[in-house]
Here is the input.
Amino acid sequence: MAELTRDRSATTVLRAYGVLAALLDVAVKDKRISRNVARGVTLPRKVAKSKPYLTHRQVDALATASAHPTLVTFLAYTGLRWGEATALRLRHVDTLRRRVAVEENAVMVGTVIHVGTPKTHETRSVPYPAFLALPMAQLCEGKSRDDLLFGDGRLHMRLPNSRDGWFAAAVRRAVEADSEIPRVTPHDLRHTAASLAISSGANVKAVQRMLGHASASMTLDTYADLFDDDLDGVAVSLDEARRSAGVVSLLSRDTATS
Here is the structure.
């Protein structure tokens, strides 16, 4: 394990360790070995990477530079995973309520796309902003209820190549026009959606439901940095609430007690 750690990332090592430890657990259970020597070893710690967040203007710039502006904007304002978004069919779109029902997930294994349930195996309803109403309606034109929303309606859109795909090309064009725009991946737009939602005042439960996290604690763990400013907001809100209540007296100095 130590040798593997020198040449591989912590994520790779932990995945390999998980497989090995599980196999040895089965061997112990079958009495083929007396104990699992993999348990209790020191494992590398994953270092959390800072997440790139786009502003509203940066999202617009990236979308404008993209071959699929509606998809880019949709991902940045709903937080859907790539497979969830590209698996949406017209029957999943409620244009009156401006909501999509996330019921399927298209995942590419090798060169084949497999369609299954969302990552948490639970369906959810996710809203999209009013400014996306017209572009979403335009995507539905000429398609049947069972056609895919994004793409030609028949084939699931594949995740673009990270080097020379249409998304990477859009990022390069956007960065050339504005060097402050961070280099992002399609999945980073999910982080942007969380950031924009939280900065607009959404609470952790709303963000959890939007992203499809298993629990609010998972959302807090993933985006703890985004909620840090809320601490200052609590103090400000308490100050304003006290003033609104008409409390104007000054606090007396605490007296020492023996």
The mean pLDDT is 88. The chain has twelve helices and five strands. The longest strand covers residues 105-109. The two ends are 59 Å apart (CA to CA).
